Amino acid sequence: MSTDVIVRAEQVTKSFGDLHILNGIDLQVSRGEVLCIIGPSGSGKSTFLRCINHLEKIDGGRLIVNGSLVGYREVGEKLYELPDRAVCAERSNIGMVFQHFNLFAHMTALENVIEGPIQVKGVGKKTAIKQGLALLERVGLGHRAHAYPRSMSGGQQQRVAIARALAMEPKLMLFDEPTSALDPELVGEVLDVMKDLARSGMTMVVVTHEMGFAREVADGIVFIDQGRVLEAGLPEQVLGNPREERTKAFLSAVL
Ligand code: ADP
Ligand code: MG
Fold this sequence. Notes:
Helix content is 36%, strand content 27%. By secondary structure, it is an alpha/beta fold. A six-stranded mixed sheet has the order 8-9-10-3-11-12, sandwiched between helices. Strands 2-1-4-5 form a four-stranded antiparallel sheet, with helices on one face. Bound molecules: adenosine-5'-diphosphate and magnesium ion (MG). Magnesium ion binds at residues 45-46, 176-177.
């Protein structure tokens, strides 16, 4: 397999008890690509992102991220579960941004950003601070480095969350509806940071209902319905000229 494939899902399945949530997801994301995932609520989008990030174990199929099988090590024909330490090492290559920013409330913006590099990567404090300030600058928040989350707007908090994820120097960034919890006037500033990141060549998987963003930034779109990829293609095709009735119905509801 080409090392330029960052995410490859082949017939990925996942159930919670009797609930079949992912029913054979197939997709691929290459280095530097932005894939947007759209689809109705409850269709398994978050579950799939959580599988990519080792937060859920898949039941069937194959999921390969950054060149390794997620959750397992393959030796010949046999699969062995990865030990926790190996899972942490894999996960440190993946940044994830959630709908609710999940910042540490008792830490300033800068402290939030430098925590991972210092604790997980063993970066020295001075270096971490220098890099952290540069990242906050990059998301337009250099002037808020010493502010606490409670004193920041939702849009600012989400930009700190993005800076915090980037501080780990991930090879892949996952976004799960990063603007869904924001007041409408704050959505743009977060999307702008994500657009810059995409332009810088970051590989991104973005679950979003922001069709303008998807159309402008995505290299590919997948429409997930009932735990399957119902339709996939270029943005102009999937958003502009969808093949499937259910894609059409979904788009006319969100647009
Ligand atoms: P989406 O992000 O597309 O809205 P989700 O992946 O969050 O969908 O959820 C898909 C379905 O899986 C939902 O019906 C949800 O209730 C269910 N689900 C998600 N996580 C769990 C869990 N840990 N246990 C049981 N059911 C879950
Ligand atoms: Mg979700």
